[in-house]
Amino acid sequence: MAAEGDAPPPGRGEEEEDDLGYRLFPDRKKKPQSFLVRSLFTFHNRCQLMLRMSLETNPYAQLLLAAMKQSGCTVFNDRHFSCENCDGCVSGGFDSATSQIVLCQNNIRQQSHMNRVVAHELIHAFDHCRAHVDWFKNVKHLACSEIRAANLSGDCTLMNEIARFKFGLKAHHQTCVRDRAIRSILAVRKVSRETAEKAVDEVFDACFNDLEPFGRIPHSKADARRAYKDFLNRDRYNANL
């Protein structure tokens, strides 16, 4: 799976069987609970409410949903999103086997965090829709999508980096994107840091400059709104040709 989060803590890796990141999402292997049972859990209710708010009001998500629909991959809330309990080091993931986005209900506690996770994972879903991504066997493919997700989802906005006490570096946005892409790979693949860094560095320029479907790096919600408006206008223009 592709994931949004940090690398797992040391000492968990080499002796465990490589499960392609599924160990971080234990609910993936459990029998689905009934809606009545799930509705009794506060985490699940909160997750569903924040997801709905994100899909209806967050311009990052709105643009990505429109782009996926245009590409023939319409996203349905009840089919393509799942609120589940996860390992403490991740906030969400994209399960390419089911084309489903997992939202970690036990780790997402604020609407702003939900907005970033939904946008991040929708970029993975968009990449899965438009390209033949080999998520499991080609670490460069994973690296490219993680670079794009960190670059375009709002993960590396100035305000988010200040909240992480990281600011003042030259080319800071690129540094943040690179670091977060590497961390995401290490969270879901049992590869060395050297392997993750090499994969990211080899594809960084091409993937960092692939700005679809935004057409720009949306550094803020205002940027994302403008990108969404431009996307809709471009779609209408193309429809009239």
TrEMBL record:
It comes from the Eukaryota. Pfam families: Peptidase_M76. InterPro entries: Peptidase_M76_ATP23 (IPR019165). GO terms for molecular function: metal ion binding; metalloendopeptidase activity. Keywords: Hydrolase, Metal-binding, Metalloprotease, Protease. It is an enzyme of class 3 (hydrolase). One of its GO terms (biological process) is mitochondrial protein processing. GO terms for cellular component: mitochondrion. Its EC number is 3.4.24.-. PANTHER family: MITOCHONDRIAL INNER MEMBRANE PROTEASE (PTHR21711), MITOCHONDRIAL INNER MEMBRANE PROTEASE ATP23 HOMOLOG (PTHR21711:SF0). Belongs to the peptidase M76 family. This is Mitochondrial inner membrane protease ATP23.
